Amino acid sequence: MADADKTRQALLEAAYEEIYRNGFQAASLNTILERTGVTKGALYHHFSSKQKLGYAVIDEIISEKLDREWLTPIQQSGHPIDVMIDVIQLAGQQITSQQIDQGCPLNNLAQEMSPIDPGFRQRIDHLYRKWQQSIEKLLRDGQQDGEVKASINPADAALFILASLEGCLGIAKNAQSIDELKRCAQGLVGYLDSLRC
Amino acid sequence: MADADKTRQALLEAAYEEIYRNGFQAASLNTILERTGVTKGALYHHFSSKQKLGYAVIDEIISEKLDREWLTPIQQSGHPIDVMIDVIQLAGQQITSQQIDQGCPLNNLAQEMSPIDPGFRQRIDHLYRKWQQSIEKLLRDGQQDGEVKASINPADAALFILASLEGCLGIAKNAQSIDELKRCAQGLVGYLDSLRC
DNA sequence: TGGAACATACCGACCAGTATGTATGTCCCG
DNA sequence: CGGGACATACATACTGGTCGGTATGTTCCA
After folding, report:
1. Which nucleotide shows the minimum CA-to-C1' distance to residue A25?
2. What is the pLDDT of residue A63?
3. C-alpha span between B189 and B182 (Å, rounded)
C-alpha cells in the first residue's frame, strides 16, 4: 500500500534529521513522532525497535545520500585528480554553515556507535568501504592514463584521502568555521596534487 | 583537605572513563558513583551539574593527557619532520586495540558535543588550537632550518596534519583495525615527507 | 583553653520527567 | 471477514537533580 510506504519514509526522514541533530542515543522517538504526526503504534509497526530504525536510516537514507553526493559526482569524465578536486571544492562551496556545525552524518554515527553496537559498525563500515573503493578506482584509472604516480598504492592513498576528508570536516565542525574548512581542504588538495606524475 | 581532593580526582577519572566509553550524553552518573563508591551528594558537592563535571574532565583530565602524550613529545630535539613522524609511529606502536576501538577522547567529545553545547565546543577548540599551534611552531622551525619548504603556510599545513591525524584515528576506530590505522598513518607520513625541501 | 558559631564534606532517600517498549483495540480495504 | 495499518493507553526502567540531615573539622572570642 502506498500510504504505508509514505508513513515509513516519513519516519525514516524524520529519524535521520533527529539523529543528525542529536546523535542516535540522544535521538528521541517521541520527537520523531511529533514531527511526523505518526503515532507510536505505527512506528513500532514498521520498526521493531529504535535500533532497527537506526539501521534503516543508514541503509536507506544515508546510503542514498552518499551515492548522490559523492559516489556519483566522482564518476564524471575527466582527469581523475582534477575530478576529485572539483568535487571537493564544489562541496565546499555548496555547504551551509548549519551543515558545517553538524558535520558528516556518516562520520557522526561512526564515532558514536561503532564502539558500542556491532550492527551500526558493520553498516557504516560497508558504506565507508564503498566510498574508499570508488576513490581507489579513480586513482587506479589515473595510473593507467599516466596521470597518477605508479609508485603509490591506490587502496592506501584512497584510505588516507577519505580519512583526511572526514578529518577536515570534523575539525571545521568543532571550529564552526567555513574558513577553517577551506584552509583544511586546501591541504587535502595539495596532497592530491602531489599524487600527479 | 586532602581527602576532598582525592574524592574530586576519583570522580574526574571515573567520569573520564565513563564518558570515553559511552559519550557524554549517555554517560551515567550512577555508574560513575558505583565505580568510585562516592555518593550522589558528594558528587554534587564538588560539581554543580553533570555539565560542569564534563567541563572539568576536559579542562583537567583530557588537557593533561594531550600535553603528556602529544605536545611534550613533539618538543624533543631533532629535525622537525623526523620528530613528527617518530611521534606518530611511536603512538601507532603503543596503541592498544581497545584504544583503537574507542578512538581519540578529544575528538569523540568534539563530534558529539560541539554542535549542542557551546561550553564544550569552546573548551575543545582551545585544546585543538594548542595542538595545532605546537605543530605549526615545529613547521616554522623547520622552515628556518631549511628543512621544510618555505612555500607552505605553516598554520594551514598544521591544521591539515591535525585533521588527517584525527581522520585516520576515526577511520581506524570504525574499522576496528590496527592495520588500517597504520596504512592510513602511512599516508600522513607521506604528506609530511612531501613538505621537506 | 574551652566551647559556641560556623564551614566543609558527605549521605541517601526521593522527585519529576523522559526513555523505549508493549498490550489491546479499532478501522478499513481487498 | 480476515489481516495489514494504524491508534491509545499504559508499563517499566532510568535519568539528572534536590533536599533535609549529619559528621568532622576550623575559627575565634571570653
Report:
1. C19
2. 97
3. 10
With a cut of 50, list the residues of chain A below it in pLDDT: 1
pLDDT at position B113 is 95
Spell out the residues 6+ positions from residue A80 whose beta carbon is closer than 8 angstroms to its own. Answer: A138, A139, A141, A142, A145, A147, A148
Angle made by CA atoms B145, B146, B148, in degrees to the nearest 5: 105
**What are the chain B neighbours of A179 within 8 Å (beta carbons)?**
none
Structural domains in chain B plus CATH codes: 59-193 (1.10.357.10)
CB B171 within 8 A of CB A158: no
Strand D contact with B2 (CB < 7 A): no
Strand D close to A42 by CB, under 7 A: yes
Helix runs in B78-153, H state only: 80-94, 97-102, 105-113, 118-144
* Burial class of B37 by CB neighbour count within 10 A (0 to 12, 13 to 18, 19+): exposed
Q: Tell me, what amino acid is at A41?
A: G
- Between CA A71 and CA A75 the distance in angstroms is 7
pLDDT for res B69: 94
The pLDDT, as a whole number, for residue A3 is 72
